[in-house]
Design goal:
mainly alpha, globular
Length: 238
C-alpha cells in the first residue's frame, strides 16, 4: 500500500477502508482524488498510523462490502437509489424536524445550533433537487451508456456535463457537512444535552457517514465509468 495512492482509489480497492478514513476524519468522497500523503499532511495526521490502520483492516476476514467497481452502471445506479437516496428521503424530514426543535429549545444559549438548522435546511433543499436530477437525467444516461452499441444522443450533449454539475453539488454538500460537524464539536453532545439534542447529533453523524459512502460510489466509481463508456463509444479519449 502506497502513500501516493489517492484515498478514493484505496476505498475502491477495499470498500471497508471507508471506516478507517471516517475514524481519522479523512474525506474519501469529495476529497477522494488527493494522495493519502497529502491528506495526512494537511490534517496533521501521522501517515504511518493511517497505513497501520489500513493494513489491520485488511488483515482480518474479507470485507463484506461489495466491490461496486465491478458492477454495471445500471446495477450501481439502482443500488444508489434504493440505498442512499431512499435513506436521504426517509431521514432528512426527520432531521429537519429535530434541527428545528433543538434550535428553538437551545438556540438562545447555543446560537451555533441555529446556524446548524440553517445549514441543514439548505442541505436538504439542495439534496432533494440533486436526487431528482440524478434519477431523472443522469442515471438514465448511465443506463443507456451501459447497453449502447453506438454513441447515444443526449439532450445535454455529453454525459460529462451533468457529471460536472453533480460533482460540484457534491462539493457543496460536503462543505455543509463539514460546517455542521465543526459547529457541533464533532457531533459530541454536551453533558446537559436532552434526548432530542442527542438524537439530532446522532442523526447528523449518521447522515455524514452515509453521504460520504454515497458520494464515493458516484464520484469515484459511477461517474468515471460513464465518462469512460462514452469515450469508448465516441472514439475520444477519456
Amino acid at each position: 500500500m502506497s502513500l501516493t495512492a489517492t484515498v478514493g482509489e484505496l476505498v475502491v480497492q477495499r470498500p471497508s477502508r471507508a471506516r478507517v478514513f471516517e475514524r481519522f476524519g479523512i474525506d474519501y468522497c469529495c476529497g477522494g482524488k488527493l494522495p493519502l500523503a497529502d491528506v495526512c499532511r494537511k490534517k496533521g495526521i501521522d501517515p504511518q498510523q493511517v497505513l497501520a490502520a489500513l493494513e489491520q483492516d485488511g488483515a482480518g476476514s474479507p470485507a463484506i462490502d461489495r466491490d461496486w467497481s465491478a458492477a454495471s452502471m445500471a446495477e450501481l445506479s439502482a443500488h444508489i437509489e434504493a440505498t442512499h437516496h431512499a435513506y436521504l428521503k426517509r431521514e432528512m424530514p426527520r432531521l429537519e424536524y429535530l434541527t428545528g426543535r433543538v434550535a428553538d429549545r437551545h438556540g438562545e444559549q447555543r446560537p451555533e445550533l441555529r446556524k446548524v438548522q440553517q445549514i441543514f435546511s439548505a442541505f436538504k433543499a439542495e439534496m432533494d433537487a440533486h436526487m431528482m436530477k440524478e434519477e431523472q437525467v443522469l442515471f438514465p444516461m448511465c443506463r443507456k451508456l451501459d447497453s449502447a452499441q453506438s454513441p447515444p444522443a443526449f439532450h445535454c450533449g455529453s454525459v460529462r456535463n451533468p457529471v460536472a454539475m453533480m460533482v460540484s453539488e457534491h462539493d457543496h454538500a460536503g462543505e455543509d457537512l463539514r460546517q455542521m460537524r465543526e459547529l457541533t464539536g464533532g457531533y459530541i453532545p454536551p453533558g446537559d444535552a436532552c434526548n432530542t439534542y442527542r438524537a439530532m447529533l446522532a442523526g447528523l453523524s449518521e447522515l455524514e457517514a452515509d453521504t460520504h459512502r454515497h458520494v464515493h460510489l458516484e464520484n469515484n466509481i459511477l461517474f468515471p465509468k460513464a465518462i469512460a463508456a462514452e469515450a469508448r463509444l465516441t472514439g475520444c479519449g477519456a
